Every structure is written in C-alpha cells, then in structure tokens.
Recover the amino acids of this structure.
C-alpha cells in the first residue's frame, strides 16, 4: 500500500467514526462520551478527539449532565439543531410540498405550491418555486447555506410507474413514460439531489413517526391517488437486481387490470367524472362519493379485492412478517381495505402460508417531505463502511466532519 493509499484509508476510517458518533447521538438523543464509545466500539481516547472536533464544527453540543453512581457527573452531548439542514420535497398529483429540516429532523420551514396537472414542465416549475421559497427563508433566518446537506425528493408512483396509473391521472402519467424525474428537476448551485421512491421514503417516515415493533420484513403499502409500495427486507428497502422490486401497483388484479389501475383514488375520480360527478379536490371527492354511493361501493369492493390479491401473491413468495397499510385520505375506504385484508389473509394457513400482521398508519401533514429531507441528511452524515474499502483519491468522498460541501448533483437512487 502506498503512502497516499494509507493516508486515504486513515482519513476514511476517521470520517466513518465521526459519522458513527453522530448516528449514535441521533439514536440516543443525548449520551455521554463513554456511552457512545461502548456503542461504536472505540477507545475513550479516540472518541474524545472526535467529540472535540464535532463540537468545534457546531455539529454537536453539550446537552446537560447526568449524576453517576460513582465519581463526577457525566457530561451529556446531543446533535446541534443548527449543525446541518436539508430540504425535503414531496410531490403529489396537485401539489408540491417543500420543507427545511434541521439536523435533529425537526421541520423549520414549510412551503406549498399548488398546480392543476403534474406534467413535466409544471413539476419543474413547482420544484424551482418550492426550493426557492425554502432558500429565501434560509437567507432571512441567517442560516449558513453551506450547512445545507442537499435535497431529498420523494418520487410519486404516477411518475415511477405511469403504466400502473389509471383514471384521473392517466393522461398526466402518460407524459412521464420514458422520462425520468431526475432529468426534469432543475439544479440549485451544486446542492445534491437524492431521489427515492415515495414509498421508500414513506417507510422511513413511518420509522420516524411511531414506535414500531422490531419488524424486519414487511410490505409498506400506501394508497392515495395512486398505489405506492416498498418492500422492506432485513430492515432496509429492497430494490432487487434492477431496482424494481416491490412494484405492487404493477401486479395483476382479479379484474384483469393492474392493482394500481384499480385501487388508487385516481381510478375512483375517473369513474366519478364519467358518471357526471367530477372530483377535482378532496372536498369534491367527498361530495361526489355521497352523490354516487353505488358507484363508490362497487369500486371499493374491486379495489379491496385487488389489494388482497396482490398481498396474497407477495406473501406466498416472501413470507413477510407484516403489511403496513396507509390510506390517504383516511376514510371508510381504508377501514374496508383493512377489514378485507384481515378476512382474506386469515385463510392463508389453509394454503400452508403464514398470516402477516396488518399495521395501519395515519398519514401526517409534512411527514413525507420531512422524511425525504432526512434521507438527504442520512446520505451526508450516516456511516459509510464502503469508504473503508476504497483506496486512492477517489475514495475520499464527501467530508462528514464539517458543514456540508457542495458536491455535484446526485442522481436517481
């Protein structure tokens, strides 16, 4: 190994240890140096030096003192909220939400941009408007822009899977066939863009919002205007060899269509419009549902059966622990889906299959955009073991000790 390679390996190991300390403090909230040293298996001397560096760079702060059984009280440390920030973007069929999240994950600013149709040109303009609003707040609040880690984006299913979209979104989704979102979004002075499937970001939001049991293998299923999903195996999103695993919306439904074409609210909007009860927004949707109860009941049964068939197929192949279900807006349809799943899955033992638990989540405003921002923070500050295996200048990567640098635009992930 050359002297340059040894220096690079030592630098990568030091950066990994810095990130490991930050991750340990994020999990614990507050902790002493000895507690962190035990968690990440470093010597007290090594931890002490890294703590001093992180304190100087403003990434951590003292968080009080704790009386010990013997000796002097221990000084506690925590992440500094102003140590770093990230921008999160949630793209819906008729809105774009942009948030600024601090280093602890708290939302510091929120901006909404409404639009009529999610075509590429409209979303590009909405993205630019939303990020510009956040950056204007950054300037007004006196936040050092160098501390913004990047932009996390939750990619909606109607862009990622336009062929599985139907009803009111079908025309808009058709414009995204063969066009990737990362090629449409504008750049912002070197801020890296971390693009992830919306359901993968939603799975992260779930972990941030609620105390979930230690479920390692599950299907995260979000039903809104479209059907989005994420397959989580071993506690991490699983994309498969080509990055397309867990595309639940593309599964065939009993009707012969796809699950996404049957079960999303866009499909219901399409049916209501054809019946003379258009539903452009949420209030219109509830009104139209009251005007067309038989149509809604028929669609609801078809949607519930489509979801059940898809879950049964997934369970037969993967033997999952749970299905995490989120329905937005949370109305009686969500209750019907959940009840249909429980009744149908209860018959799985007769087929020699295990019954997965069903866990219902209620969507929270801003949660998906906030989780997308957390992804950008994670990309910048989480431990990266792969850095330790690289040699030469290309292995240096982005520094984790100080304020974020301005790396080149990130790609689709």
């Amino acid at each position: 190994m050359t002297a340059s390679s040894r220096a690079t390996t030592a630098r990568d190991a030091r950066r990994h240890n810095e990130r490991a300390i930050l991750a340990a403090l994020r999990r614990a909230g507050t902790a002493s140096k000895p507690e962190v040293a035990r968690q990440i298996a470093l010597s007290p001397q090594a931890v002490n030096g890294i703590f001093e560096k992180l304190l100087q760079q403003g990434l951590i702060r003292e968080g009080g003192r704790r009386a010990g059984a013997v000796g002097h009280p221990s000084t506690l440390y925590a992440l500094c909220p102003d140590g770093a920030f990230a921008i999160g973007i949630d793209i819906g069929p008729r809105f774009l939400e942009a948030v600024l999240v601090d280093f602890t994950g708290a939302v510091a600013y929120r901006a909404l941009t409404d639009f009529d149709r999610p075509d590429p040109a409209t979303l590009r303009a909405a993205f630019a408007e939303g990020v510009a609003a956040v950056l204007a707040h950054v300037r007004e609040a006196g936040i050092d822009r160098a501390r913004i880690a990047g932009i996390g984006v939750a990619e909606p299913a109607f862009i990622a899977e336009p062929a599985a979209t139907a009803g009111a979104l079908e025309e808009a989704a058709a414009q995204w066939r063969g066009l990737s979102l990362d090629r449409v979004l504008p750049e912002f002075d070197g801020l890296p863009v971390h693009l992830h499937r919306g359901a993968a970001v939603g799975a992260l939001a779930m972990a941030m919002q609620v105390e979930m049991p230690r479920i390692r293998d599950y299907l995260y299923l979000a039903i809104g205007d479209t059907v989005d999903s994420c397959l989580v195996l071993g506690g991490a999103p699983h994309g498969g060899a080509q990055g397309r695993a867990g595309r639940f919306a593309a599964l065939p439904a009993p009707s012969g269509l796809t699950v996404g074409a049957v079960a999303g609210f866009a499909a219901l909007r399409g049916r209501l419009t054809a019946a003379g009860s258009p539903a452009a927004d949420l209030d219109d949707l509830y009104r139209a549902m009251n005007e067309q109860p038989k149509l809604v009941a028929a669609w609801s049964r078809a949607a519930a059966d489509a979801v059940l068939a898809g879950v049964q197929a997934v369970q037969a192949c993967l033997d999952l622990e749970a299905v995490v279900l989120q329905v937005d807006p949370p109305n009686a349809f969500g209750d019907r889906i959940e009840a249909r799943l429980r009744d149908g899955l209860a018959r799985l033992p007769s087929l020699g299959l295990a019954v997965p638990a069903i866990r219902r989540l209620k969507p929270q405003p801003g949660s998906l955009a906030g989780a997308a921002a957390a992804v950008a923070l994670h990309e910048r500050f989480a431990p990266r073991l792969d850095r330790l295996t690289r040699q030469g200048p290309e292995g240096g990567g982005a520094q984790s000790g100080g304020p974020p640098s301005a790396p080149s635009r990130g790609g689709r992930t």
